[in-house]
Design brief:
Blueprint (H helix, E strand, L loop, with lengths): L17 E4 L8 H13 L5 H16 L5 H15 L6 H17 L7 H11 L3 E5 L5 H8 L8 E4 H4 L6 H11 L6 E5 L2 H11 L2 E5 L13 E4 L5 H13 L1
Parallel strand pairs: 1-2, 1-4, 2-3, 4-5, 5-6
Helix pairs in contact: 1-4, 2-3, 3-4
Length: 245
């Protein structure tokens, strides 16, 4: 008599098998420390919108290969002060930038909801990736210094990958590193377009962490929103339950 080979139940697509997390302003209160560092360099944080715009421009040039990471920060600082009407030589730009970096690093802090959430995720056995739009190795230093490295199975830095959110390349790379499909992965971040919508458009489940509280208007289709990482476990449990139903 021939015994039939056991059959396995096909895995449903759309199950949650991994979680990706943004870093700055999702896990780390980056804006507070960055504003304080800018104020230490300039005297106030009133020029924050200008600083952000110039930073974004120079990070794009870095990703495009037009700038080297070692020189980008000083070039950005000189461009920033030039926009304020002050021309700096290289030595003075370096001095001011190093001071800003020292204040920035001294101010790195995790949000209170981060470690409990990461501990819960680790307990579930789900693999976890950090997916950051940062441009340089300082991000890995930050992750290690704040005790986050132990929670991640892989860390994706835009400046190393050569692509930044919402480009699907960085999401593809994260899922490849974790050995999971895009459709089985949740990505959580504080930027609606770069994180949640970018992840959704790449084929993932996009979750917007809106720490600022309720907003007017409906969420874009296919996007979930939470106001704290303390809400993420319940959201994931609901998703897991729906996938197994």
């Amino acid at each position: 008599m021939t015994t039939a080979a056991p059959t396995s139940t096909p895995r449903r697509t759309g199950e949650i098998r991994a979680v990706c997390l943004d870093v700055d302003d999702t896990l780390v209160d980056y804006s507070t420390s960055s504003r304080a560092a800018l104020a230490a360099m300039v005297g106030s944080a009133d020029a924050w919108p200008l600083w952000q715009r110039i930073t974004d421009e120079h990070c794009e040039r870095l990703l495009a290969g037009e700038l080297e990471y070692e020189s980008m920060r000083n070039i950005r600082t000189r461009a920033f002060f030039a926009a304020l009407g002050e021309e700096l030589d290289q030595e003075e730009a370096t001095r001011r930038e190093l001071h800003r970096q020292e204040v920035l690093a001294a101010g790195w802090r995790l949000f209170p909801d981060v470690v409990p959430c990461l501990e819960w995720l680790r307990a579930t056995g789900l693999p976890i990736a950090a997916v950051s739009n940062a441009s340089g190795r300082h991000q890995r230093v930050k992750i290690a210094t704040l005790g986050l490295a132990q929670y991640f199975d892989t860390v994706l830095i835009a400046g190393e990958v050569g692509a930044a959110k919402p480009d699907r390349v960085i999401f593809d790379t994260a899922c490849a590193d974790l050995g999971v499909d895009l459709c089985d992965t949740v990505h959580v971040g504080d930027r609606l377009h770069a994180d949640a919508i970018g992840a959704r458009d790449a084929g993932m489940k996009g979750v917007w962490l809106n720490r600022q509280g309720p907003r007017e208007g409906a969420l874009p289709a296919g996007i979930s929103a939470i106001s704290s990482l303390a809400e993420l476990p319940e959201l994931l449990v609901c998703e897991l339950s729906a996938a197994s139903a």
